[in-house]
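STRUCTURE:
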């Protein structure tokens, strides 16, 4: 019989009753070190006092009024995001897919409003992940995700990631824009080279296209900058954020320059819940931490430290691991065994990570992770590697 909760996920048989910092606890009293952070979302970890107080306080005042009225908490949040980024204006919604939908609508609308309605197509990268709505499935372009859902929504072209020549060759008179993740998350923690991002910016300028960055996973401090594209020294015209933006409270955002944002006039786009007082209060509490002096430098340093702790283990177990890559607190451990096998072994040793494509395990801990947490995680990776090596006297299953 089908479970009451629709079975769209292969869930681990774990139910957490509470958390503290980077740790999660089950009813049975087991504790797990959470280096998945709800898929790079619980950016302040669990039970963060500032976030809890902001949500509880706002819930007691007013949670939701709709966008038919001013929302001071959202106005303040937007002003802070504008001050901290390339953007001049922000639209709030409720998820990453919804942010990307709005981003693509904005690109198309900007072209139509400037007399180029034939420009509606968006160039995306292979290995990308942009969400699960019908249009974002087409943007993602992954045959596995598209299967069974009818004809893919028209308007998206895929090119190999980090290949500027291929991207330039895909530009046609129908192209409106380019959508790139500066660090691919689901695709296996693949970092766009600074040269690629700069080349994409130059191509967009040369052909009069709009450049969009999907920073749903790599943004909001994850790499040690507010947004990952800052490392390459280029800016987009429009950007999507979500996941970590409100520390686990559902929220998405579209950030845009004035030249683009002005094309979404009243009535052209909307959302009932987006940017409501409760979500905005949560996101403001996240920004209080993220923008505090030194915090992002600490994220970068913790990322370096985690890399330095894991690198020797990767070198020591070449039968288990093939490499380590990423940026800041967004690291991918490439496995020589099926990622699910290693993930289960890590879980048995008390460490939660998230699998990605290409047999990569994502280490995406809360941004408030401590040095002690990093050391504990490395210890668990070593112990899991040793036990996996011992238990499989026979050759390990080789990755497909
Ligand atoms: C998770 C993710 C999305 C989709 O976000 P949802 O909130 O699940 O809709 C889009 N883009 C990227 C890069 C993501 O990691």
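SEQUENCE:
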């Amino acid at each position: 019989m089908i479970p009451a909760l629709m079975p769209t996920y292969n869930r681990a048989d774990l139910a957490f009753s509470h958390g503290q910092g980077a740790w999660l606890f089950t009813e049975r009293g087991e504790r797990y070190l959470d280096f998945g952070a709800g898929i790079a979302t619980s950016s302040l970890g669990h039970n963060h006092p500032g976030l809890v107080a902001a949500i509880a306080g706002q819930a007691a005042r007013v949670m939701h009024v709709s966008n038919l009225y001013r929302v001071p908490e959202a106005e303040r949040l937007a002003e802070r995001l504008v001050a901290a980024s390339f953007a001049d204006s922000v639209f709030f919604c409720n998820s990453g897919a919804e942010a990307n939908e709005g981003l693509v609508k904005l690109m198309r609308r900007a072209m139509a409003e400037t007399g180029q309605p034939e420009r509606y197509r968006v160039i995306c990268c292979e290995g990308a992940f942009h969400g699960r709505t019908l249009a974002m499935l087409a943007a993602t372009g992954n045959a596995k995700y598209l299967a069974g859902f009818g004809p893919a929504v028209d308007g998206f072209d895929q090119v190999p990631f980090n290949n500027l020549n291929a991207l330039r060759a895909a530009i046609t008179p129908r192209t409106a824009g380019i959508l790139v993740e500066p660090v691919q998350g689901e695709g296996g923690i693949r970092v766009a080279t600074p040269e690629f991002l700069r080349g994409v910016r130059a191509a967009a300028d040369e052909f009069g296209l709009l450049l969009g960055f999907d920073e749903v996973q790599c943004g909001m401090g994850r790499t040690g900058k507010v947004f990952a594209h800052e490392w390459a020294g280029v800016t987009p015209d429009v950007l999507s954020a979500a996941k970590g933006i409100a520390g686990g409270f559902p929220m998405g955002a579209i950030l845009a320059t004035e030249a683009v944002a002005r094309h979404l006039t009243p009535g052209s786009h909307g959302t009932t819940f987006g940017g409501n007082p409760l979500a905005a209060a949560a996101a403001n509490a996240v920004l209080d931490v993220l923008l505090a002096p030194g915090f992002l430098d600490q994220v970068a340093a913790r990322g370096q430290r985690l890399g330095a702790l894991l690198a020797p283990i990767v070198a020591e177990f070449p039968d288990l691991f093939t490499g380590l890559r990423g940026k800041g607190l967004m690291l991918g451990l490439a496995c020589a065994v099926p990622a699910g096998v290693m993930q289960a072994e890590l879980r048995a040793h008390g460490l939660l990570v998230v699998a990605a494509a290409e047999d990569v395990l994502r280490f995406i801990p809360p941004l408030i992770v401590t040095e002690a947490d990093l050391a504990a995680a490395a210890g668990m990776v070593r112990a899991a590697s040793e036990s996996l090596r011992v238990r499989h006297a026979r050759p390990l299953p080789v990755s497909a």
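REMARK: The chain has two domains: 16-34+294-391, 50-290.
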